[in-house]
Design a protein that fits this description.
Layout lengths: L4 H11 L6 E9 L4 E8 L4 H4 L2 E7 L2 E7 L9 H14 L2 H13 L6 H13 L3 H10 L5 H13 L3 H13 L6 H13 L3 H14 L5 H13 L3 H10 L5 H12 L4 H10 L5 H14 L2 H10 L5 H13 L3 H13 L6 H14 L2 H13 L6 H13 L3 H10 L5 H13 L3 H12 L8 H13 L4 H14 L6 H13 L3 H10 L6 H14 L2 H15 L3 H13 L3 H14 L7 E3 L8 E3 L3
Helix pairs in contact: 3-4, 3-5, 5-6, 5-7, 6-7, 7-8, 7-9, 8-9, 9-10, 9-11, 11-12, 11-13, 12-13, 13-14, 13-15, 14-15, 15-16, 15-17, 16-17, 17-18, 17-19, 18-19, 19-20, 19-21, 20-21, 21-22, 21-23, 22-23, 23-24, 23-25, 24-25, 25-26, 25-27, 26-27, 27-28, 27-29, 28-29, 29-30, 29-31, 30-31, ...
Length: about 600
């Protein structure tokens, strides 16, 4: 005779040892009536454990789920629910976990801090940070583990400001942060390069005596390295008593990524047992800031190079506008049968996008399909960018729609693709759609592309101003010089360059040559000579002699019939040794892209 659920739970809990693991097994799946039978089973045990079950039915019309215990009316147990939620998390049983959440609320176990923390981790694992936050808010007395789980969840999902905001809330609460709280906060500070905040957190770590933790010290090393504060990173490193391999690698990384290559090599030589990561950090720093041939030599001499070793050099070539050499290295990597990952493909696709080499892009796309990486967020975003920059916006849009998951970068590259190809209607539609996405907010790059689309397609100025105000007021995004330039171009199209000049000072960009060049270009488009003379003077003051200034002013004086001023400007060009550069363009012919001067 079948025993009640509560009896089974008690029996299981009596038999389990504290250190023994539990596995959630899918015991039965019946297609006919869509019944899932899921049981907790202790490893090595048999049917007695498989009788501890939850069953739920799913109708064809949707998830009309009845969560039932083995017998009607049986009462559950907090520990059993805890294990079931953890098991749902580990196996990715999303519908089951959501139904468990519903049952937990109905049965009054939502106030149990252990069960609620397990639910919190379930939602973090499935990247549903909004639901995770809601679970946390509903917890009567969250523990430090609960706080840490949500802070770490925000960090892993890339929501670093949210993580830091929650950490500051933790500090104001009655609960004392622990080492895990501080490491998550330091990581978020490092990702945002917030040196002042990182230093403040470091001070609190010293007050609490947590600086002796290797994990905390290594996070501080990483933070100072990413914030460009190498001296402080060295001080932290020197104070670590038992340096592990992570400490050494973090120190090499801090030096290499801040152009301190000699110091990086010094730490590498003093390191007891360098590993692949140690070599990769040297390769990465050398490929970006040193002689890239030296990076190739390190690659040739290292014991066991991996895909990251090759990726660093490919990225170095691409960043130096040597994409053909990057492509050559990529083909060598393929010939040597080196395993390629998503970052290999994203790096080489970035180089191909810069060359607008469509045929090569299609070939690399085929490779990504072969490797099963074409649906990854990183590679998918790179493919969208490549097709957009090669003018194949339809292909880019098809890829965008086919991706199972998209992040902020994916949305931004698609909006950017539409913007740069003059598809303003699609930009606005996609932007509106993006704002409705869960756990996704537009950033400065999103708005920059929206404003760019407006300026390239003569959207009414008032509409663009609404987007700009939404960026600053609704989303709290500080405008950059690039945002200001887009607005200047729009105002120039409407002949309101006087308004653009005022905006430059209001936004605090009076000492930025970039915005004054944009204003000068806008004056050239609308023919405002008075403001153009002011802008030209500011560009020369901030950036020195610039061919752009002289060409624009010469043309504007000619339009106004001021031939004497035209002669003066051209004499100034000759005296300053400034010449107008020849424009050039390229087109792919038989896989070759020869540069050709437009003056030929």
């Amino acid at each position: 005779m079948q025993r009640s659920f509560s009896e089974l739970v008690q029996k299981c809990l009596q038999n389990q040892n504290e250190n023994q693991s539990f596995v959630l097994l899918l015991r039965r799946y019946i297609h006919g009536n869509h019944v899932y039978r899921i049981s907790l089973q202790k490893e090595g045990e048999d049917e007695e454990w498989s009788n501890l079950t939850w069953a739920f039915t799913v109708n064809q019309g949707g998830y009309r789920t009845e969560i039932a215990l083995s017998e009607a009316g049986a009462k559950s147990n907090a520990n059993a629910l805890l294990h079931l939620v953890r098991a749902s998390t580990n196996l990715g049983l999303i519908p089951f976990g959501q139904q468990l959440h519903s049952y937990i609320l109905q049965s009054g176990f939502g106030s149990n801090v252990f069960v609620s923390t397990a639910l919190l981790n379930f939602y973090i694992r499935i990247d549903s940070m909004k639901d995770a936050h809601n679970v946390f808010v509903e917890m009567p007395e969250p523990s430090v583990v609960s706080w840490n789980s949500l802070i770490s969840g925000y960090v892993h999902s890339g929501q670093f400001r949210a993580a830091l905001g929650l950490f500051l809330q933790l500090e104001r609460s009655d609960i004392c942060p622990d080492a895990f709280s501080f490491t998550a906060a330091i990581t978020a500070s490092a990702k945002l390069s917030l040196l002042r905040l990182g230093e403040s957190i470091h001070c609190k770590i010293l007050k609490l005596g947590l600086e002796w933790s290797d994990v905390v010290a290594n996070c501080l090393l990483d933070m100072y390295g990413k914030c460009g504060h190498v001296i402080e990173a060295i001080r932290v490193f020197d104070n670590i008593i038992d340096k592990d391999i992570i400490s050494w690698n973090s120190m090499i990384s801090a030096c290499a990524r801040n152009r301190k290559l000699e110091q990086a090599f010094g730490y590498f030589r003093n390191m007891p047992e360098p590993d692949t990561i140690s070599y990769n950090e040297l390769i990465n720093g050398t490929a970006h800031f040193g002689n890239i041939e030296d990076a190739i030599q390190i690659l040739s001499s290292m014991p066991s190079p991996n895909s990251s070793s090759w990726n660093a050099i490919i990225t170095g070539y691409v960043n130096r506008d040597r994409s053909w050499e990057a492509l050559d290295l990529f083909t060598r990597m393929q010939a040597k049968d080196i395993e390629m990952d998503q970052f290999t493909f994203s790096s080489i696709l970035s180089g191909i996008a810069g060359l607008a080499a469509l045929k090569w892009g299609v070939l690399i796309h085929c490779c990504t399909i072969k490797y099963g990486l074409d649906k990854s967020i990183v590679v998918g975003s790179a493919l969208i960018d490549m097709y957009s920059k090669c003018g194949q916006v339809k292909n880019a849009e098809m890829l965008f729609q086919s991706l199972p998951r998209k992040n902020l970068v994916t949305w931004n590259v698609m909006i950017c693709g539409f913007a740069h190809n003059g598809n303003v209607t699609e930009v606005i539609q996609l932007f509106k759609q993006m704002k409705t996405e869960k756990d996704l907010k537009p950033d400065g790059i999103t708005f920059l592309n929206v404003l760019l689309a407006c300026s390239h397609n003569q959207v009414p100025l008032q509409v663009a101003i609404q987007y700009f105000e939404s960026m600053t007021e609704e989303y709290g995004i500080e405008p950059t010089a690039e945002h200001c330039c887009s607005m200047i171009r729009l105002m120039g199209q409407q002949g309101e360059v006087w308004r653009a000049e005022r905006m430059i000072y209001e936004l605090g960009f009076g000492s930025c040559g970039l915005v004054w060049r944009a204003l000068l270009g806008a004056c050239g488009a609308c023919g405002d000579l008075k403001v153009a003379e002011v802008a030209a003077g500011k560009v020369i003051e901030l950036e020195g002699h610039n061919e752009f200034v002289y060409v624009i002013m010469s043309n504007m004086y000619a339009c106004y019939g001021k031939w004497g001023d035209v002669c003066v400007v051209r004499k100034m060009m000759r005296d300053s040794g400034v010449r107008k550069g020849a424009g050039c363009s390229w087109i792919e012919v038989e896989n070759v892209i020869p540069a050709s001067s437009m003056l030929e």
